[in-house]
Amino acid sequence: MPAGLNRALLTLAGAVVAIVLAIAVCSVAIVAAGGDPLHALTAFFDFGASERAQSNSVATLFNRAVPLFIAGLAVAVGFRMNLFNIGVEGQYRIAAICAAYVGSTFVAPAPIQIAVIIIVAMVAGGLYALIPAIMKVTRGVNEVIATIMLNYIALNITAYLVRGPFAGTRAEGELTVSTPPLPDSGMFPDLNFLFGWFGMLAPTREGGLWGFLVVAIVLGVVLWVVLERTRFGFDVKASGLNQSAALAAGVNPKRMVIAAMVLSGAIAGLIGLPEILGSTGSFGTTFTSGLGFLGIAVALLGRNKPAGIAVAALLFAFLDRAQGALQFANIPPSVVEIIQGAIVLLVVVANEVTNRFALRLEERRAARQLKVAA
Q1: What's the number of CA atoms in the CB half-sphere (13 Å) around residue 152?
Q2: Are 267 and 70 in contact (CB under 8 A)?
Q3: Tell me: the pLDDT tens digits for 288-328?
Q4: Contact between 282 and 276 (Cβ < 8 Å)
Q5: Which of 53, 113, 216, 373 has the fewest C-beta atoms under 10 angstroms from its C-beta?
Q6: 83 vs 135: CA distance, rounded Å
Q7: What is the Cβ-side half-sphere exposure of residue 284, based on CA atoms within 13 angstroms?
Q8: Phi/psi at 107 (nearest 5 deg)?
Q9: pLDDT in tens, 234-281
C-alpha cells in the first residue's frame, strides 16, 4: 500500500476512534446529569416534525457551518506558519463593525455594494492582524500574548463604536443597539432555491440559507490552491518548519510572518459577514461571538486542510444545532460543549498516535528496502 494512502487511512481511523470515544465520554456525562444517552442520540438527529421545520434545521446547520469554516481557514493559515493567531476573535469583530458601518453609508448596485463591504472587512481584519505581526518581527513579542490582549481591546472598541459613533437610530425602549441597517443592495441573495431541487420546502428562519455559502466554498478552494500549489504556500510551510533553513534558501522569515498574519486576519474579517449580509443587515450588541475561538478547534480537528476544516465545521454545526432538541429531551445543552471539547482533545491525541505509528511503518518499510537492495 502506498505510504500516502496508508497515512490517510490511519488518520481517518484515528478520527473515527476519537469521535466514538468522545461519544462514550459524553454518555457518561449525560447519565451523570440524569439523562438518557439514547434520547440524546435521538435528539441529535431530530430535524423537526414538519417539512418546514426540517428545512429550517438544515438551513441553520449550514448557516452555522459557514462562519465556522471561515474561522477555521483563518486559524489554519497561521498554523501553517507555526503562528498561533488567537486574535481571530478580535479581528472578525473589528472587521464586521467596520464593514457594516461603511456599507450603510452609501447605496450602489448590489455587486458593487457587496464587493465594497467584503473588501472593507478583509482590509480591517488584515490591518488588525498586522499589529501583532509587527510586534513579533520587530520586538520578538509572542503572538499568543499579543493577540489575546488585542482581543480584549477589539471587544471594547466595538462596544464603544456600536453605542457611539457607529450607532444607528433605535426605537424608544429598544434594548439592542446596532449600526445603521444596510440597504437592500447590501444583502447577499439567499440560496433557498436549492431546497426545491431536493423536493423540500424553502426555509423561513433567519433569512433562509445564506448565500455567503458560495463565497466560503470559493475561499476554501482558492486557499487550498495558494497554500498547496504556489511558491507562497511553500514559503509559508518552509518558514514554519525551519526558519533558519528557509532563510538559507532565500526566504525572508520575517516577511512571511507578516504575510501569513495579514492573510489570516483578512480571512478572519469575513467571519461575521454571513450573518450581517444574510440575516441581520447590521452589527449589533447581539452579534454572534466566540466564533474565533471555535475556529481554533475546527482547524485542529480539520488538520489545517480546507477539506478537513469543512468536515469539522459541519460536525460542530451539527452539534450546535441540536441544542434546542436536547432541551426538549430534558438533557442539558452543555453536553454539546462537552462533546466538542472531547472530540478535539481526543482527535489531537489520535493524530499524534497515528503520526508516530505511520512514521514507524515508514521506517520499517525503508529498512526492508535497504535490506533487499543490499
Answers
A1: 5
A2: yes
A3: 999 999 999 899 888 889 998 999 999 899 988 887 777 77
A4: yes
A5: 373
A6: 13
A7: 18
A8: -130, 130
A9: 888 888 878 887 888 788 889 999 999 999 999 999 999 999 999 999
